[in-house]
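Lab notebook, bench 4. Still working through the backlog of constructs that have no structural model yet. Next entry is a single chain of 368 residues. Request: give me the structure tokens for it.
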Amino acid sequence: MTSDLERWRLVLGVPASGVADLDADTAARDSALSWLYGRDPGLAQRGVRGAGGEGSQLTTVDWLDDVHRLFPRETVERLERDAVERYDIHEVVTDPDVLARVEPNPALLRAVLRTKHLMNPEVLSLARKLVAEVVRQLVEKMAVEVKRSMTGTRVRKPSQFKIARDFDFRGTVKANLKHYQPESRKVLIEHTRFQSRTRKHVEPWQLVLLVDQSGSMAGSVIHSAVTASCLWGVPGLRTHLIAFDTDIADLTSDVSDPVELLMKVQLGGGTDIARATRYGAGLVESPRRAIVAIVSDFYEGGDEHNLVRTVKGLVEQGTHVLCLAALDEDAVPTYDRQLAQRLADVGAHVGAMTPGQLAEFVAERIGR
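Model written out:
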């Protein structure tokens, strides 16, 4: 078990080499940490950690083998995330030997989406497997949230059909209160009650998801794709998914296959939100039964006035417009607040949502 002194030695790195003697495993952990964090010039300038001696000789494959052997899974995921996101060690997702060893997680999925254009067919095939596993985990999690939100309002009325799942507990107790036995404190049940559960008729609605695929929006792109897939096939809801930068890619035909959808996403480039919003507005068939959700950081590279004018027109015709600065599990927004305020001023709902919250918003509208 690692002592407190050894933990501090691992945190501080080489500058604290005199704090504690390290056993073989702890020394190996130190080398693995030095290989990654020792390349950070900011830390080196503060004397917090310098690159380890033998650790600097590690290849990416060796390092990955070591961290999987030496650290718990949650720590491995953090180290892999820092490798690709803080230090741009692209071998983690472009080297087939490395890619075959990594633990699938959302950080690596984001890295795959950013670097897939660098991959040869062999690596791309391995990367697709990683994408598929992470998507499977996300769908499994999100499907529960979406299903909970989209169960719909049900009309309850007495039923002659005695089906266990439709048993009306409260109604049965109320109908038999006259048979209450004070001495035993029990209600004798003479008449049971059941209810039918008929879903309200739902008028068809549209959800148009417009997703900014600039590099900073990778997390929201992933969650938008998976959310759209979970919403696909919901009764009374037709879902569209459009990815955009300065160009527009209508990915609706791939919504049912989020892996294929994500492999078509091209992260990076400029941003023309106004153009994408005009395209989304053109898809709306029944304005008062439509939701247009723009997922972007709202740093507009196109015409801001045109964007505000288009959003205002959508709102005035009765369409619900959501301007989401983030659509992921954390819903931590980073966005142009000035432009977002202008959009809010013309009637758009502006903020950030988790996929579950978006599903709840949609469910509330289509259930009315």
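Notes after review: Strands lie at 154-158, 180-181, 186-187, 195-199, 205-212, 237-244, 248-250, 290-295, 320-327, 349-353. Residues 154-199 form one domain. Flag for follow-up if needed.
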